Amino acid sequence: MRRLTAAVLPLMLLLASCSGGTAATGSAYEAETAARSYIESYDARDGSAICDAFAAELKRSVEEAAGTLHTDCPKLVAAYIGYGEESDTPQFRHVTVRSVGAQVTGDVAHVRVREALSYETSDPQRAHIETTDVIYLLWRDGRWQVAKPGAIYYASRSAYQVPPSALDRPVLDSEAGAPAPRRGIAPSCGGTTLAHWSDPNDDAPMQVDLTGVAARSLPGATCVQFSSRSVPPPGTIYTVSLEQPIDLDAFRPLDASVRVGHAGELSIAADDTMVGGQAGWNGDVLTLVIPQRIWPVDPTAPVHLSARLDSVQQAEPLIAHPLVGGDFIHGDTHMGAEPPPGVASAHGPSADAQPPTLEACVDAWNASDPGRAPIGYDPLGDTVDSEAPSHPAQQGFIARSASVGSLAGTCRADFRLGSVHAVFQQLPDGNWYGFSFLNPDLWQSAPNACQAVDGTLALAQQCAPIQVPPAQRRPLLKEYEHFARRRALHAVSGGNGPAWWAGPRLHASALALPNPDIAWAARALAAVVYSWQTLPDDPAQPAAQFQLVVLTYHRAAAPASLPCGSPCHGAYTILKRIDRGSATVLLISRVGDAPSTRDVRAIVSRLAQLRS
To answer: Is there a contact between 582 and 555 (Cβ–Cβ < 8 Å)?
Structure first.
């Protein structure tokens, strides 16, 4: 079996425009015929023909995956054709080859195929797609063999994730372990520094150890420089994430990447297309220039910057022992809270699982000395407060009546506390956690359970009054206020100035919620948000929605107006400007339902510096 070697590489680059074969290899026509036959095998759902077309390395990788499922390559490939991961996934039906053209260089053929794909879907825009595929072939054993499966492999199974290097030239095993040749001269990268971050050495494999990233503003462009311990090998990808605020609600994001491919070839992508971008090397520093029309940068506005360097060699079938791993510089991006050790993901069971019965939920609440359900579960973000114990202690009495049911396939208990109610959910780890917000008295289901003095629940439509000793009562509202204070202190710790707020709770349900994104967009030291609802006198009218934000600035540093994009559709308005000590505080509210003048006066009277 013939193998490509490094000696072939210069010839491949010099003869990239050649379209004919030699006596030792197949012709371009034969390559086109092989690629067409390979694509049409997907239309015929012929798993055997597809696997027979694969080069030995590609077939071996598919066979390994098939072996874990106790099947073989033909059956696995055929089973995935027309597969839909979810009920609304477009399902592949047919592919038609519109045109095909091959370039042959040595014993490698680069075949471009224009394909028309048909899908069964409720979305007419996704039912018929035309695309250009690239099939790479190797001349072995007297025939052209498929070295990489091409886009059709993923399109026929409606794959959600496609390797970014799927259409790049195959990376050879002989080049996979060495630094890639440095191709391309680094573009100029002077200008105003927007953001920069460093990363320690030795926190990732040396070949993908990212040590720094910087973003600078150039006339008509943004320049990003990646520093690493060494030039990575072919089959790696640099990615930068940039974000600037347009106003307090909207942001301008960009994810741009540079792939290091076969023979050091650099390929640029940003949201799959970035025409006019440039990339090149200056020593071990890779420079990427992003045109202004792709990401219009405001040099005076703050920038979120993060970067990563990853190996994608696992998607290269010709590499016998692919490099695995990567490195990530978080920068100042806001990362979601991580579950504490021992706490499972908040995701519930699969959609096929039957929801628990009311009796099962009551039993789960009452089981083996009911434990204290700590506040900290965010059902929207699937997170658990990192300070919440995963093995709670005794629980205590919360409220006489409760509503028991299921939410996302897991048990839920909802307790009414005057004009608000608190919801607890059992996570897959078996423990119960309280939602990290209080609910206004608008959505609670009808009570169907009663809580006893010892904290246990029993299903019932009516609850007789009981006397509960003070020592047995759980001070849940104080717990919520303590949680809100702790959350706010954690968010502003390490800040470069004071932070002011209006206390842990406003208008019953409005728990203080620090919002670093609003603070960043408003150029403030801190932002604390309060959101609540009130019912109108007329039940036919919708509830009034309120959102008030306390912004803290250094004294006299608060802006006269809030940032707003062009065209400006301001979402917030300034209600009050207050100087307190070394700080200036702005009270702003979302345009629409605004707090009354009396409410604003009451909130101003509650303003205080956030302290532990």
So the answer is: yes
pLDDT confidence of residue 441: 76
Q: Are 222 and 215 in contact (CB under 8 A)?
A: yes
Residues β-bridged to residue 102: 111
Specify whether the backbone of 283 is left (phi greater than 0), alpha (psi in -120 to 50) or beta.
Answer: left
Q: 429 burial class (0-12, 13-18, 19+ CB within 10 angstroms)? A: middle
> Which of the 8 DSSP states describes residue 479?
H
For 366, list phi and psi in degrees, rounded to 5.
-85, -10
**Mean pLDDT for all residues in the chain:** 85
Amino acid identity at 107: D
**DSSP code per residue over 261-274:** -GGG-EEEEETT--
Cα–Cα distance measured from residue 218 to residue 297, given in angstroms and rounded to the nearest whole number: 9
Extract the runs of DSSP E, i.e. beta strands, from 363-429: 375-378, 383-384, 401-407, 410-417, 420-426
Torsion, Cα of 42, 47, 50, 54 (10° steps)? 150
Q: Which structure tokens are listed for 564?
A: 């707003």
Residues contacting 475, CB < 8 A, separation 6+: none
Q: Comparing C-alpha atoms, which of 79, 135, 94, 88 is closest to residue 112?
A: 135
- Per 3-state DSSP, the chain is made up of helix, strand and coil in percentages (nearest 5) of 20, 35, 45
- Residue 333: pLDDT over 60: no
CA separation (Å) from 318 to 154, 172, 175, 222, 321? 18, 6, 10, 36, 9
The model's pLDDT over 453-483, given as tens digits with 9 standing for 90+, comes to 888 899 999 999 999 999 889 888 998 999 9
The DSSP secondary structure of 32-85, one letter per residue, reads HHHHHHHHHHHHTT-HHHHHHHB-HHHHHHHHHHHHHTT--HHHHHHHHTT--S
Structure tokens at 545: 């929605």
CB 232 within 8 A of CB 208: yes
- By DSSP bridging, strand 236-245 and strand 505-506 are unpaired
Structure tokens at 594: 């605004």
Confirm if 229 and 257 have CB atoms less than 8 A apart: no
User: What percentage of residues in the chain have a pLDDT greater than 70?
Assistant: 87
Range from 226-230, 238-242, 384-388 carrying the lowest mean pLDDT:
384-388
Q: The tokens of 445 are what?
A: 């289901």
Rounded-to-integer distance, Cα 610 and Cα 600, Å? 19
Cα distance between residue 227 and residue 209, in whole Å = 9
Whether pLDDT at 538 is above 70? yes
Q: Which domains does the chain have, with CATH numbers?
A: 6-162 (3.10.450.100), 192-329 (2.60.40.1190), 358-474 (no CATH), 479-609 (no CATH)
Residue 316 CA, chain-centre distance (Å), reads 25
Q: For residue 298, what are the CA distances in angstroms to 146, 216, 246, 305?
A: 47, 11, 9, 14
d(CA 357, CA 362): 9
Residue 366 has pLDDT above 90, yes or no: no
Half-sphere CA count of 549, side-chain side, radius 13 A: 26
Cis previous bond, 253, omega within 30: no
